[in-house]
## 1
Amino acid sequence: MKFFSRKAAVASAVALGALTAVPVMAGPASASPTQCSVSFNFSTASSTCLGGTGEHRIVCFYTHHIPGVGTIMGYGPWAPVGGTSSTYCPPDRVTNTFVELR
């Protein structure tokens, strides 16, 4: 019986040592885009971000011209920092516009 408890103690110590020896790996650092702005040109909304890293896109919520249809969500394509994302967005029916980041 004494042999079993010694064996269990050694196995526990080895397992604990293995767990503490595993280095903690940090994920890659990522910063969201910064200095973002929204602009409108006729029926197009656009977003541009000038700093940081990652991607951004414009999101536009607007009311459909047919009553009862409801709100339509327009999404521009994902663009890198320094690029522009644009989508259809009629200015007379906009309910919300913002820049989405990733």
Note: DSSP finds one helix and seven strands in the chain.
## 2
Amino acid sequence: MSKFISSLGGVIGGFSLIYVPISDLLPSLESLFDAVGIIVVSVFAVALIVNGVRSLFHRV
């Protein structure tokens, strides 16, 4: 359960990096935050899927 909560927190953190309103302060960093957010969401989403499949096959 702890891995699930950590991975879910990573996905939520990635989405917050994508949607952070940084364009008012430093517009040049907006694309960097978008890229990092997309990478973070992708990595943690894959981690959630892998852990789900592993737990599914472990119970059988």
Note: The chain has one domain: 2-59.
## 3
Amino acid sequence: MPTVAPLDLDAHCIAVAWLDDVPHFALADGMVHRLENGHEEAEAHDGLLSAAYDAENQRLITGGEDGRVVAVRSGGRVEELASMERKWISVVAAGPQKAVAFAAGRVAEVVFADGKRRSLEHPRTVEGLSFAPKGMRIGVARYNGATLHFPATEGKPTELEWAGAHTGISFSPDGKFLVTTMQENALHGWKLADGKHMRMAGYPAKVKSWSWSARGRWLATSGAPAAVVWPFQAKDGPMGKAPLELGTRGDAMVTQVACHPAEDVVAIGYTDGMVLAARFADAKEVLLRRPGDSAISALAWDKAGRRLAFGSESGQCGVVDISG
């Protein structure tokens, strides 16, 4: 049976990440807590707004109300990477070659490993950022579509249009597809080779969490009473195909999803604080955490896929050990 090691904190958990195999919990008050031979903490911001895990370099990239972008490393080390005076850093992203991107208002900034910066201005507010899995390319979610840049060059960006407000963005792990979350209860996607559109609708709520499976064959999403998992195995992705619905509950909505690092399994967090794991092949479920007092707001597996860190809106955090 899975065992749960709780960590009760006092602010909304924005993100969780495993840095050098130690769970770190980033809270909205700007503090980053970790379980490392006891409970330790470090201050990253005066108010934290956004976070992105940089698996390649074992760091958590965070942006805050203080206009700073920092990298949090294991042991609580906090390194400032950039700042924008009097701006709230609403979006951050981690890229290849130690590149980092962040946005405030209509401007996205890319900071390269050597400290050089490139500003990318847009006619409307930047809502989401994502680096492509290969090459130095970045996608920007915006009103009426997405913009793709090669920030290391001065080339003209690629514009992908679709009416509506696009709030988040993600490349598939193989780089063949680009998917955005929307202000309406839907996802939109493009097949990058030919620009074909993919519309994934029917959600009762906005999609605020998503996770690609280990080999990129599936995309798990929140926004329904089940984890909605879209198939991306075919050359045209999910077009014309129905999604899986895993962990269906009639009395609670899915708020967070996190795919296992090796298996076709997804961890699912709900509005009532429950956490389940469900297998794609047969929809088999395992209860990982009983309901708590608030919605699950962050989930992350460790590298081995044996432990799952979770955080909630009220600060109820912890680690589930599924090895028993």
Note: The first strand starts at residue 3 and ends at 8.
